[in-house]
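User: These chains co-purify. Model them together.
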Amino acid sequence: MIRLEKRPQPSRAWSMATPLVAVLATMIFGGLLFAALGKPPVEAIRTIFWEPLFGEFSFYYRPQLLVKGAPLVLIAIGLSLGFRAGIWNIGAEGQYIMGAICGAGAGLAFYPAESFLIFPLMVVAGALGGWAWAMIPAVLKTRFGTNEILVSLMLVYVAEQFLASVSLGLLKNPEGFGFPGSRNLQAWDSAHNAELIAGTGMHWGVVAALIAVIFAYVLLNRHMTGYHIRLTGEAPRAARFAGVNPTRLVLFCLGTSGALAGLAGLFEVSGPSGQVSIDFNVGYGFTAIIVAFLGRLHPVGILLAGGLMALTYIGGDIAQSNLQLPAAAIQVFQGMLLFFLLAFDLLTNFRIAIGKPEVA
Amino acid sequence: MDLSAINPVLLIASLMVAATPLLLAAIGELVVEKAGVLNLGVEGMMIVGAIAGFATAVESGSPFLGFIAAAIAGAALSILFAILTQFAQANQVASGLSLTLFGLGLSALMGQSYVGVKPPRMGDIHIPGLSDLPVIGPILFGHDIILYFGIILTAAVWWMLKYSRIGLVLRAVGENHDAAHALGYKVLKIRLAAIMFGGACAGLGGAYISLIRVPQWTEGMTAGIGWIALALVVFASWKPWRALLGAYLFGGVTVVQLNLQAAGVAIPVEYLAMSPYLITILVLVILSADKSSAPAALGRNFHASR
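Assistant: Joint model of the two components:
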């Protein structure tokens, strides 16, 4: 008979190994899925994981890795703080959109002035936009006890409608021949989030993501607030007795994750995407949830997981053009990854024992 | 703007149609939560039900078979959630989210060749005499059969939870799983059954959107209805009749804003389209003060150590 025995402590070794096991399992089952769609499975997996890094056109794809990975890491770092404390912000997509709108709006107010102050202003406005949007579920939770999961998610749909409204109205390019969407920020030097070193994909968002990783690492390991976050997640009752203020923690976690998501949105519209348009958002806010879990809610883990997830985006694009693999197949692939991760997590907390339990 | 173009009889009749997917999903989730399990994957199960039902109805030509397939698909997806949370002891919030993310991708993959296809129509019932009555006829006696099934299901769940032995055991598992286990009830099996029931209901709700309410297939067409259904369970304080009331309220908001859009009210379309989500938040705020009716073991995993 196979039983599960709870480990006295979670296994550190398995905690490190489960993401790798999950990735392997996803490759196997993803391969089966691709085979079921009539695509060569080994070729498809190789295209997704190998082609962007070492393939013929890797000189083009490697910089893309940073471009796609930066927003994922930036958002996931913020989410991980809350997830650790049992505060579930799943509306990062909305905060990402609002950060982009506020940041771009603040910049466009000064169009066509040229000043080195405009981009920093946009960065601040972007962070504030995301922060303010995340403060709605935070304040409602602390003031009325409203469920932050549902409120933050509802606000994604509200933000999407607002995005449609501003791209057709307030921020619409007056010289855009009636097409929806704002002015192209790439064409305006003061607002353009350009590559810092040409040809590397390294833009300010990447720098911000790296700073966020270091910031989160120091916060969690060396700072009282970080300790409170970990304590609340692992032993909520003990945390209350130790004098942790839950209200402050909710405001801090949701606010930080909102601000980081807002930053990610601003760096995206001022750089790779270039303009605020109805569909500039591609779901980074939701994929970042997978990144946060895959990275074990640990800053360094998230950095690696963000890279891996960016790889599946780019590799998915290549597989789409080379093998006609449908885009939705990659979405299923990413969803599968989270499934397997959660399933294999069993081995971190439980030991599989064979035989009859001893009578105590 | 021409508000006189809005026909109140048609408005109420379409309100009931708009409310049915919400009602089906919410009743399913209500049973799941009564068993102490929080499944945030409703949106994912709905959208998979929507495409499974749509595809089956188109291929077989029978909307009825479509609904059965949708229920099976929703239940099948919910088994994945049950494996994660009940067997692998994974966090319920994370597992539910993964179910939604996976379901959205899976449905997009399944639905590729069905974009723009017209599904077979499910006929409305017609009771001679009753259906021809003015005003009452089109409101009460002129709908499709699934709409009535939703109302009957609400009554059945209410009766089951309140008066039957199964309902009592289900509530016991949801309130205190350790005590229920000590009494000899199979906590995991009961929860598995509840989760699958919830999945089947969500699947039906999804298929109602793609086969009757819209009726066509577009990617991501559930547009947050699964999440509103989750909010509805809180709104209903875990009581079936209040879920019905809530579903009609939200159905009403949706239908009224669509009618206002069509009538050309001076409010921009985007702001009208926001309204169901904003009202959901508002309702959550008003009703969050009282958490006493929530099942005590909601969201906690059970592992029999002894």
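Residues 187 and 274 of chain A are 8 Å apart (CA to CA).
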